[in-house]
Amino acid sequence: MTMIKTVKSALREEIANVIKTLSVEDKNNQSLRVFEKIIKLPQYQTSKRVSVYLSTEDEIDTLPIIKHMFNAEKEVFVPRYRGKVCEMVKLHSMEDYDQLPLTKWNIKQPSFKDVRDNALETGGLDLVLLPGVGFTNDGKRLGHGMGYYDKFLHNCFSKQEKKPFLVGIAFNEQIRTEIPMTEEDVPLDIVITEK
Fold it and tell me: Tens digit of pLDDT for each residue in 70-105?
């Protein structure tokens, strides 16, 4: 287990350094191509309740996806982190998004003062769009090391009869041939990059 942690930690650093070298233009172009692929996915088109992360500058930009979901009248759920727990809560509109406060990590997140529908308590999710540091083409995911998404997904699987479709979205530079996995790590159904 310690060996896997060490390998994952080194891999996170290596990929983070590569992403720092990408230009804003390159990130924007890759984000646009990923957006175009996502909205063509049959699983996206048929989904009603979708969870999506609120991106940082080092991730595929999810804002166009969020706008598209509202235009397509999907129910949108975004992460809210407290301690070691991540929950997916409802985002009501683009105006709602614009007013979200920033966390200490400079990520927009719904306030804990806001009473919002929790996805797992109000009907579950059809599709989950996941961030990550690294991915393999066959669905292995390297997160940021806190285990938020893996814990959330295990909780989700225990509460829903039908498993949501899991989509990792990434820059080309985040794809690796191998990522070590533990029993807690949840494999994804598909990983989408520009390529």
Answer: 999 999 999 998 887 889 999 999 999 999 988 877
Looking at this protein, which amino acid is placed at residue 171? F
Amino acid, single-letter form, for residue 70: F
- Between CA 37 and CA 45, with CA 155 as vertex, the angle to 5 degrees is 25
**143 is in which domain, residue-wise?**
2-192
- CATH value at residue 182: 3.40.50.10420
Number of domains comprising the chain:
1
* pLDDT tens-place string over residues 47-78: 999 999 999 889 999 999 999 999 999 999 99
* CB neighbour list of residue 177: distance below 8 Å, 6 or more residues apart: 136
